[in-house]
Structure formats: structure tokens, C-alpha cells
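Work Package 3 (structural annotation) set out to generate three-dimensional models for the target panel prioritized at the project kickoff. During this period the team completed the workflow that converts sequence records into C-alpha cells, so that structures can be stored uniformly alongside our sequence database. As a representative example, we reproduce one entry of 277 residues exactly as it appears in the project archive.
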Amino acid sequence: MSNTAINPKPTLSVAVLSGKGGVGKTNLALNLGYALYKTGHKLLLMDFDIGLANIDVLMGLSPEKNLQDLFQPDTEASDVVYPIEENGFDFLPSASGVPELLEMDDDMREALFGKLNLTFNSYDYLFLDLGAGISQTVLSVASMSHMPILIVTPEPTSLTDSYAVIKVLNTQYGLTDFNVLVNQIDAANEGKLTFDRLNGACGRFLGIELNYLGGVHSDPSVPEAVRRQTPLMKFAPRCKAAQDILNAAVKIHRYRQNNEDRLKQEHVLRKIAAPQS
């Protein structure tokens, strides 16, 4: 490989996904991103929950353009990126119920990300809020990212669905590095106990060990921030859930620091991995 860095920033791509809906995935993606921005990092939050895009609703935004417009030859990435905060917290919106996005194949995703690559390189972090479940789009984009993060809750259905996501990404795409953030916990040890159940199943049946990013407490400030269409980290930065999110953001930043040399030699989003037979 050439000594010239491909990704000189370097940018860490983070895919935020979940086995089932309703676990707070999008809210955590937004607030993890805001926490990293507030500690001095440039971050692009990309809504890639194709079909059910709602980051704009969480923040009360009405962008004029979205990912769909990037399929037009006269639309550049700079036309679509929407600033959330000054000096480095930006948003790339998607659209709901658009057939062109719902039915994207690998070639269309490659073309879309190819148009965005130079934009990605100007950020410290790229956060991709992916849809729940094991659709082809979720699996392909998760396999392209440097750091997949699974959002789970202590509910048994969340654990079983999250295991299914991990199993498919491991057995069909060869991924072995998974990070878990447990949301909606009621006690400090509930997060670790939930993680241990999922990690135990993955070790026993898949032979892989997961990385624990922590637990986020249920907190009355969370739904209030949603109602106010304001990130929790901005609305109530000292509440328990916000402190939990900040602790997880510190671990994400540490991952980037520990992998800087490797990231400099890789594209922000790697080539889509072909499913293994």
C-alpha cells in the first residue's frame, strides 16, 4: 500500500444499529454524536434508517434536500449536508418511504458513498444511524464501517434480535468486532448483566467476544428532551443518562485514538463486503 494516507484526518466511521425498533437507537446516535462534538470534534451524523428516517424530527429540522437528491447529477454533497451546530456538528438527512432509497443495491450504495467520500474525510467522526433488523442495507453498511455499535435493552426480545444481527454479520460478512451499549437500564448492574447474557451467547455459539460500552439509565429527562426536540446532551447534560452517554462517547474516542494509524490507511467507509456463502 502507498505511504500516502487515504484518510489523513483520520475519520472513524461508526454504524449505530439494533436488532429491533424502539430501543432508543436514533436518540443515542444523536446524543453520542453531540457529546463528541462538544469535546471538540467535527462530526457528521448521517440518517441511513432508510424508510423510517426521523433524526430531523428529533431535532425539529426541515432540510430542503436529502440523500435522494444525491442521485441527481447536479447535486453535490455540500448541497445536502445541514449544519446542526456551528463549527462541526452536521447532519446528512434521509427520506421516508422513497422507493429509490428502499431498493438500493450495492452498486447504488457504492455510487452514493463515492459521491460523499471527500465530504466524509473532513470530519473526525462519521455516525451512521441505520435501521433496525437484518435488511441488506443495514448489513452492507454496517460491514463497511470501522465500529459497529449495537443498541440493546434488557428486554429478552432485544437480546435475541441483537444476537441475530451479530450472527449474520459474523457468519456472512466476517465481522468479529462488535460494540454493545445497553439502553434503558434501571440499576447500575443491569447493563453489565444484560451485556454478559448477550456476550455469553456470542462466545458459546459464534466464538467471538463483544466489547461493552456501558449502560444508559432510564431518565425522565430523555422523553422531555425528545418533546422539546433538543439533544439530551444539550437539554440536561448533568442528568444520569447524559453522563452515561458521555462515558460511552469517551470509549468511542479512545477507540479512534488507539486505531489512528490503521484509520489513516483505510477509506472512511470500506468497500462493501460480499456475503460469504
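The two ends are 28 Å apart (CA to CA).
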